[in-house]
UniProtKB/TrEMBL annotation:
One of its GO terms (molecular function) is tRNA-specific adenosine-37 deaminase activity. InterPro entries: A_deamin, Tad1. This is A to I editase domain-containing protein. Residues 49-220 form the A to I editase domain. It comes from Diutina rugosa (Yeast). One of its GO terms (biological process) is tRNA wobble adenosine to inosine editing.
Amino acid sequence: MEVAAAVVAQFDKLKPGQKPQTRSNGDQEWTVLAGVCLVDDQNHTECITFATGVKVVPERARDYSHGTIVMDNHAEMLALRAFNWWILKHIDDDKYFEASEIAGKRRFKSKYSVQLYISEPPCGDASMSYIAQDQPAWKRRKVSEDHDRSEDATGGVARGRAQFDELGVVRTKPGRADSLLSLSKSCSDKLALKQVLGVINSMVSSVVEPIWLEAMVVPESKYVEQDFDRCFNRIDGHRIKVMTTDSEFSYGKHPDKVAAANGVVGVVGGPIETLVHGVKLGSYKKNRAPNPKGQSKFCNWQMWQTYGERISRDNPTKAQNYCEFKESQIERQRLKAHVQKQLGRWVRTGSDDFPLMGTKSATMK
């Protein structure tokens, strides 16, 4: 089974309420579907994670999230986040991992190729020509209009669909032109960064050697070669092979549809969650962190609560909080800073920090 079909097969198993809906006014919703698959040396495809989603949580939520909110809810980032959760769960499974020559780490078996299916080109530089076909570019919003919505607040980073004529530049997540500011970078930029860091996050990288994204699968009808070539040749890093598929996602983007507010993220054979504003459905509280039951298993706080002890066992840390933990990974931070400098205009998001030890409740004041 090809990668696209394997991911769509998992989506098809979802309950009707977890898929895009027809609203009471008759509007049909659309979404993006993404999934991470492993393709072994016998060409057998196994879907590991899948997700839908097109939303991002505003930057201001980092002031009270403390790791309990999933900030980036675009499908491909959710699928990769869930893949990191899966890695930590299976790190001791000899089917997928083996001993490493690096003390305290495991190595992903080379027989597996990590491939990512996305039903739309990644937002940002890899989709500029495709998006420009039927949508107008945004105009700059001055600070005087609303600082929390202005492009000036991004430190000069192009926001969403602003300045179509600027290609090869870092962009923040689109949202609507009038939506609250997010400094979360586009999926194109985040995937470019993973060409150097791999698909694993800070937690996983402390106990696992880098795992590379070998291939990306997108619909042939939405693929613009020059955009992908430009986007993923901005830096010297692991080359991602781009493959196309003839299959079209039935709930895909269409001018007559509206973007779904909800998203879904799941691990095959594991947890499946419906997310709204980065928390479990029904748990959103305006300007407040969710209570523990409303937190996604895939948010940073919950991932540490589940796997922090395992991580600390193999790679002891003196860090007292999550930001210190990330900064302590000196080589990873060096590579990250180097790539961000190469890409240019990379404004850092807020810290979204939380304590690693001595905290029994994730509901922060």
